[in-house]
Write a structure and sequence with these properties.
By secondary structure, the chain is mainly alpha-helical. The protein has 27 helices and two strands. The chain has a two-stranded antiparallel ribbon with strand order 1-2. The N and C termini lie far apart (about 60 Å). It holds the Pfam family FUSC.
């Protein structure tokens, strides 16, 4: 949350204060709101005479977020997870409360399963799985020692958690609220204008390869962040919920338009490199006409209302484009330097890019009204983590809980239950972090600070105060300190550990017990569980090891396999969202490795180009009912391309390239020898264009497949 607030010489005091209010000031608003919500929860819990007000107070710091929608979304999934964990734990207590070994084993397996679910999903849906596991441990481990009161204890915990959820949501929504919907509106405006600027600069040749890569990497981060913001904004107000389908559609259409434009831009670069000056010169005038269409009265489009005119201009350009392209084609057919297939491929990509851009502009324009027919959008961006990686997270958590549970049973340590249930929470929470080992270690550091602060509060201040006002005055400095740490980017784990476990250790109950031995035992148990979790993350298939990155890179390449073989309905949306989501995960693992991030981005480009062309090709094939012999060669091409991206090597590259060339030659022979109807001929020409684009993508010298192409050319020279 922290951002730079360094002033520039010559700036006025007003501008400096405005900048501070928009950056650091927002962080301090969040800090005071979190402390206010915690004290409000504590006061209500004490007034209702709840047994452990500290549980309700702890819940506030668990669910509190800067934006109202985030708090409401997190609270919703926490409540759902809590209820599921409650039901499961009551079942486990009823079955195994008399058998400690079986009970610990069953609880560990359940928490491991929930941790795998949390790692598999994303955003606050992941948090629901975390709570389903943690709540089971929180309720079950203490209640299993007194099964006769398990049901009452479970209901009490749920009541305390629900109170914390309600207070956090109320304070976040009513006191200086910050809405995710405002962030979405800003992102939509900035992204549309940024994409227009990118298109203009790239088509004019004013962007080099590193700039294009940086822009596309920013687009990926923007797409993932936009979907996360949309998923929480629906909890804020009815207007955002009414536009949720269009916002999801806008994100999808932006992905399609950016993919299509990148493919077009790369093809034009290849044509220039190959010396196809005639084709480039024939198409460049059309490119220069696109940018002015995205303006209103000579100015860039600034909002949804202005986008309506841009959409109208694009629609007119699109409707006239095929006739104009055919005229240009006929005028150049007599030129001996004119490569007909290259021209058809480039013009087909241009038309499809304009079509995607028109859909993007129309959906953006539809946001100007509350309801619109474009709201009916079925496809959704559904991010998922690799199933094997998620399973590893679940198995790791199960092993940690079983080991700590065995230690508890063997030693009969009074705080062993605290150690086991906290290990469940830490493993589940840290598993969703890009660097779980560091996260768990930071939480342990924060807990050590909480232990020191808690001893001062419990044994130094509590005996000397009376009344809620003095209690609040005693707690506020310590709560402010912890919440402040949680807003510092490099100390988030320390702040989270401090806030949660300060409340756990030093949060007051209606009947305060001064037990130094129990306090120190609980503190040691908390820190020990986090250190064990940190060691487990570092030793048991660590997430920052190369294996996970290789696994995700393999998943990214296999998206082309899915494009070649999966069912066509909604395939394009799944392909677009999965590739971006996988790149986001890969970049998170290589946060400080620019070389690894660049390699992943190059594979993303290769996957997008080949996968998108394959999906377009399959859609054209699906629209044709005739079972012509040339379909066999295209089927062989799809299979060869899928095999290449599944496990790239030189032999598979040669096979894919040869199959693609054979399919092009076969289809070209059909077009030359037969006279199919006009509609069928145009469809065959489009299929031929997609095949040609796949071939050029395979031979792209900037592709990660280029080493195989170079080896092939070198082998051909040696053979000669």
């Amino acid at each position: 949350m922290k951002t730079s607030s360094v002033s520039v010489p010559g700036e006025s005091l007003g501008s400096v204060l405005t900048h501070w209010a928009r950056t650091e000031g927002l962080a301090w608003i969040y800090i005071f709101k979190a402390v206010l919500a915690a004290l409000l929860t504590l006061w209500i819990a004490m007034r209702l005479d709840m047994p452990q007000p500290r549980t309700a107070m702890t819940t506030v710091f668990v669910v509190m977020q800067p934006q109202s929608g985030m708090v409401l979304a997190k609270s919703f999934y926490r409540f759902c997870g809590t209820m599921v964990g409650l039901v499961v734990m009551l079942v486990l207590i009823s079955l195994f409360s008399q058998q400690p070994v079986l009970f610990i084993t069953a609880t560990s397996l359940w928490v491991g399963l929930c941790t795998a679910g949390a790692a598999r999903n994303r955003n606050f849906r992941s948090y629901g799985f975390v709570l389903a596991g943690y709540t089971a441990a929180l309720i079950g481990i203490p209640a299993a020692q007194h099964p006769d009161g398990a049901f009452l204890s479970a209901l009490t915990r749920v009541s305390e958690v629900s109170l914390g959820i309600l207070c956090a949501g109320a304070v976040s929504a009513l006191v200086f609220p910050q809405h995710a919907g405002e962030q979405i509106r800003t992102t939509v405006r900035r992204r549309f204008s940024g994409f227009v600027d990118y298109v203009c600069r790239a088509l004019s040749g004013r962007m080099d390869r590193p700039q294009i890569e940086a822009t596309n990497a920013a687009f990926v981060a923007d797409i993932v962040g936009f979907e996360a913001a949309r998923s929480v904004a629906v909890f804020e107000n009815p207007e955002t919920r009414m536009k949720s389908g269009r916002l999801a559609r806008l994100n999808s259409e932006f992905m399609s338009a950016s993919t299509r434009f990148h493919a077009l831009h790369q093809l034009m670069n290849r044509l220039r490199a190959n010396g196809s000056t005639t084709t480039v010169a024939a198409l460049e005038p059309y490119f220069h006409e696109v940018a002015p269409l995205l303006e209103k009265s000579g100015e860039p489009v600034l909002n949804a209302a202005d986008a309506a005119q841009a959409a109208t201009q694009l629609a007119g350009f699109k409707s006239a484009l095929p006739k104009r392209i055919r005229a240009t084609r006929m005028g150049l057919q007599a030129d001996p330097d004119f490569a007909l297939l290259e021209f058809d491929t480039a013009s087909e990509l241009l038309y499809r890019f304009v079509d995607d851009l028109l859909a993007y502009a129309q959906t953006y324009a539809s946001l100007a009204v509350p309801t619109h027919e474009r709201e009916r959008w079925v496809a959704r961006y559904v991010p998922k983590t690799n199933l094997l990686a998620a399973s590893v997270s679940g198995i790791r958590t199960t092993i940690v809980m079983l080991a700590l549970g065995a230690f508890w049973i063997a030693t009969a340590w009074p705080s062993g239950g605290t150690m086991v249930l906290n290990a469940a929470a830490v493993c589940a929470l840290a598993s969703s972090s890009p660097r779980p080992t560091l996260m768990a270690f930071q939480m342990a550091s924060g807990t050590l600070l909480a232990m020191i602060a808690g001893m001062i509060v419990v044994f130094g201040l509590y005996p000397r105060i009376d009344g809620f006002l003095l209690l609040s005055a005693a707690l506020v400095p310590f709560l402010l300190f912890g919440t402040y740490l949680s807003t510092r980017r490099n100390l988030v784990g320390v702040g989270i550990g401090y806030c949660i476990f300060f409340c756990f250790l030093a949060g007051p109950d209606n009947l305060t017990h001064y037990d130094p031995t129990g306090f120190i035992n609980d503190a040691i148990a908390l820190v020990l569980s986090m250190l064990v979790a940190s060691i487990a993350f570092a030793v048991l298939l660590p997430t920052d090891a190369p294996w996970l990155r290789r696994l995700l890179m393999s998943d990214l390449r296999r998206e082309v396999v899915q494009a070649c073989r999966a069912r066509l309905p909604k395939l394009a949306m799944r392909f677009e969202s999965r590739t971006r989501d996988l790149l986001s995960q890969i970049n998170a693992l290589a946060a400080n490795r620019a070389d690894l991030q660049r390699e992943a981005l190059q594979w993303l480009f290769a996957v997008l180009e080949a996968g998108h062309a394959v999906i377009d090709l399959r859609h054209e094939l699906a629209a044709m009912t005739a079972r012509a012999p040339w379909r066999v060669s295209i089927a062989a091409t799809l299979d060869a391309v899928a095999r290449l991206f599944d496990k790239p090597d030189a032999a598979r590259f040669d096979t894919a390239l040869a199959s693609t060339s054979d399919a092009i030659a076969t289809l070209q022979a059909v077009l030359d020898a037969e006279r199919p109807p006009r509609a069928e001929r145009h469809r065959l020409q489009r299929i031929l264009s997609h095949l040609h684009f796949i071939r050029t993508a395979l031979l792209d010298p900037q592709s990660p497949l280029e080493p195989f192409s170079a080896a092939r050319q070198q082998g051909a020279r040696h053979a000669a």
